[in-house]
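[Structure tokenization] protein backbone as discrete codes
[Encoding] learned vocabulary of local backbone shapes
[Protein] chain in single-letter code, fold in tokens
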Amino acid sequence: MRVLSSGRIIHRQEVVLQQGENTFVFPDIIVPTAGFVDFRVVVEPRSADIFYQNNELSAFTEVTGPPRVLLVTMDEREVESLRTALEQTGLRVEVQGPHDLPLGLAPLSSYDCIVLANVPGTEITTDRMEYLQAYVSDLGGGLVAIGGPNSYGVGGYFETPIEETLPVEMRIKDQKRIPQMTMLFVIDRSGSMEIAGPSGVSNLELAKEAIIRSFGLLTDTDRVGVLSFDVNAYFVLEIQEVGDEVNREQMRATVGTLRPGGGMNIREGVLSADQVLRDDTSQIKHIILLTDGGSDPTGISAAVDRMYQNYGITTSVVAIGQDYAHWLQEVAMAGRGKFHLAYDVSTIPAIFTAETMLATRSYIIEEEFRPALTAQHPIMAGIDSTPTLQGYVATTAKETATVILRGPNDDPILAAWQYGLGRSVAFMSDATSRWAAHWIGWPGYVDFWSQAIRWTITEGSTSNVEARVVQRGEDAVLIVDARDNRGNYLNGLQFDASVINAQLNTDTLQLQQTAPGRYEAVFTPEQEGAYFITVAGQTPASADDMASQQAAQTTGWVLSYSAEYRVDVTGEDREQPLNLLKRVARITGGESLALGEERAKEAFLHNLNQEQAAQPIWPYFLLAALILLVFDVAVRRLVITSRDVENIRSKVAGWLGAGPQPALDPAAPAPHLQRLRGAKDRVRTVRGQSESTPTILSQPAEVARPPKKRARVPKAAPSVSGSTQAQQPSKQESPTQPPAGTLASRLLEQRRRASQEQDESQKE
């Protein structure tokens, strides 16, 4: 049995498991720090196990205590004054080196604030930076960065997770402040550079990534080139101006074509660089030499020294691995550059960016100045002015950051902002006698640093916010209950939550109010283990305190293995495991067939009761059709007049006791019949008047008739019998009768006769 915490084994013990439930106590396990601590117990059976999924289980606990601050520094002497000042204010302070920085969210969560004091980015691995970023943004932790010659851009933090977390950018945006520079990368491409490191990426690929990242630090007028060597040297990228983004993209593609070769001749690469750079007109000329081994050192240091003496060309060396040639340090000294030993090849990009910024000689400003207070902030509460500083590292403030102190060229000296659920502060000068000698003896030194660090620790956290997780099927529901100091529900809050598993996967949730004082959000856990959950929001302003307070809560939750892998060893199943199967058969209406071969044959009998999964509903539709048919016939055949409606309304009013209604005369005709009779009488009156008045009608002019054509009688053809056909007599016109009746009837009659005569003429 192994017990792990934060991925490390903290206890190991051989145990003997008995049938049933086993309980073990580990009294020797001590939690040395406050905060959330995760545990994972793994059981490894010596014999075969049918199900391995239920052989481990996770848990967590929270250890409370006073605020704890972790000071990370390369030299403890550099933070002696700062440590003493923080301890005077009641903070618990621990000092560690960058290589001892806790790896994982669980150990980081035991600290309320982490301070990086002049720590180079080349000494912090990428995974540790990512954990620090998640610690601030997702767990609501605090981060304070203190400057120095090895911090910020010159420390290699360009395009790293730490730069994203801090309120400042590592690069100076004002290109006029940076002199023109020619940067030449001399890269070893021997066969050993193809070896992959712990990250699975080869050294040469990391070198190419470092070169590409350095392009982002160079200005458009800077010049850059890439020289590669094995036995011979050749240019992968000819020295040229960096130019616009289109040209930068082309340079990135060209660098990507670099491939490993064989052999190694460092002297050949150095001499080729000398031939190209000696005639370059840039103000600054710098070489970065990268190699993972050594070759014949004869004449290399002398050549590098001559390049500096005659042409001002500086050279820095980056050696990979512990098997490097120690004479490479002499090469860096001869070239007036720096020597970097990359134990972890993943730090090569940070080394290159740091070298690029150092080569410009524009990022470290060493001159005496007094910072100007430009914004009111809790960090400067009770502090109106500060002593002078002797230097700082130039950076650029981000748009949403609050710049509290500024220095020469309007550069930020102190900046702060909210990052996710946490806060971060950047102080571009240092906390030692190097640049802050006048600050150490300043009476406000203790208050300044205490307020800066305490501001990053989430203030106003209320115990009236309670968070818990309830699993519903495949999903998990985060439930938050919020009340004020009087126990009343807090409604209308905006809550955000971060859910982090042990693999650093983060889900950001927005909670919705579902009941008075209750907020919920749903997420889907995908991996077993302990989850850390941080909830943060704003409480509404109260009558006593007009300012809203920060409400935050950090808790944990464990996703265990699936329920089907659980072994029920309680109750009746402890004595007889088959009882579980019998219960399943009884619940589902079946029976046990494990009583012999005869009963086993019953498994193939078709004697189970059939359960209908569907029910016919056509009788209901037929009944509805019959009812609608009667209604349809009634609507079509029945005529209900307004008189019928009045009678019905009178009867209903009488039943309801609405008082006597005026009786209707049954002999009285209906209103619509009265209207029809009135219209008929008016028509009769008008017709009688027209008949009594004589009307003189003029005879219409005789209609011109078309001339009749004389009928032509055809000659009779001789028939077979020799007889002739008798001719039919012509029709005689009847005499025209005088017109009678009304004018309309006479006109119609005359039109009819004209039409008849026209038809007869056409027949002729």
